[in-house]
Amino acid sequence: MMDDGRMSKPPGGTVKAGYQRPLDFKQGRVDLTHGSGGRAMAQLIEQLFAAAFDNPVLAQKNDMAIFTLPPGRVVMATDAHVVSPLFFPGGDIGCLSVHGTVNDVAMSGAAPIYLAASFILEEGFPLADLKRIVDSMAAAAREANVAIVTGDTKVVEQGKGDGVFITTTGVGVVDDGLLISGDRARPGDRIIVSGPIGDHGMAIMSLRESLAFDTEIVSDTAALHGLVAAMIERVRPQTLAGNGIRTLRDPTRGGVATTLNEIAAQSGVGMMLEEAAIPVRAQVSAACEFLGLDPLYVANEGKLLAIVAPDDCDAVLAAMHAHPLGRDAAVIGTVTADDHHFVQMTTRFGGRRIVDWLTGDQLPRIC
User: Fold this and answer.
1) Residue pLDDT, tens place only, 137-157
2) Hey, which residues does 173 pair with through a beta bridge?
3) What are 90-136's pLDDT values in tens digits?
4) How many whole angstroms separate alpha carbon 259 and alpha carbon 329?
5) Nearest-10 crossing angle of helices 127-144, 93-106
6) How far is CA 241 from CA 133, 179, 236, in A?
7) Closest to 203 measured CA to CA, from 25, 27, 367
8) Are residues 193 and 305 in contact, defined by beta-carbon separation less than 8 angstroms?
9) Which of 202, 269, 336, 343 is deepest in the core (most CB within 10 A)?
10) DSSP letters for 58-119
11) What residues are paired with 77 via a beta bridge?
12) Strands 190-193 and 330-336, how do they pair?
């Protein structure tokens, strides 16, 4: 039975005011009292969330976070995570919720600093799985050097949720002179991808479809702000003068194809890709072929697209190759002048085709 929130006797001791016996992280389950605002909720917060995310701001135990930011412009992003299944090769919803928001902040060139996290839990969800998710989230935040400083927890009745949904909001700071935006791509710019595409989406789909390959497909989920910082540092003088890195974007839902169409429309340009230059792992390509999917439309959670001025392309590429998350980076195309804002691709056979926006949803509940 879950603790009903009442005072209970510690093993081998006397009753102490406010004592709560430890949560059962082996057999226990979430119940409605964990979202009621009472003792059981306070116990869940104290023994799970506060213990895992511990930092000085969170330890203030306020309903908000009060903090100071370094000089620069403030960047904020928010993201809801509903991935199914919750655990997958290479990650889980916990680390994904940190990486996804950290990356959204980082695509402006900002350094992510703080996160807020909101959990919607379903009644009956195993506390062991919740602890595993929270511990993964805490480890990802520590690795990314960001602090989870405030949050919220709600519980819905069994059958009205799907285990766990997590929303994270990130705050970071970008230098005043740095301008990286989706409307800055110019004809002649080079298009770079940081590594093989489609890993995350096909890791999820292979698990759902019980597909087996000689080599396991593993999600690429990762925090990219370190890679971004290395890229910016290599071209910093030119970047601050308005050249260098024009646009950064992480191609999550809709994949590379949809992300490039978004940038083309935002900047009022076209794009020409080279199919042979786009890196895709053999097992991902095989899985996509088996399922009738195009890797260009499959989600990524640890890759970025960079639109870079031609004079700075070699320097940015060298910086990426020197970083663990960019060692397989490749130039995959060029920005073109096109009033229609088409993204096109030269195929391996020498033909040409339109790479259009994603229609429908190839892979629902992917992040």
Assistant:
1) 999 999 999 999 999 999 999
2) 74, 111
3) 999 999 999 999 999 999 999 999 999 999 999 999 999 999 999 99
4) 17
5) 30
6) 43, 9, 9
7) 367
8) yes
9) 202
10) GGG--SS------SSEEEEEEEEE--SSSEETTEEHHHHHHHHHHHHHHTTT-EEEEEEEEE
11) 170
12) antiparallel
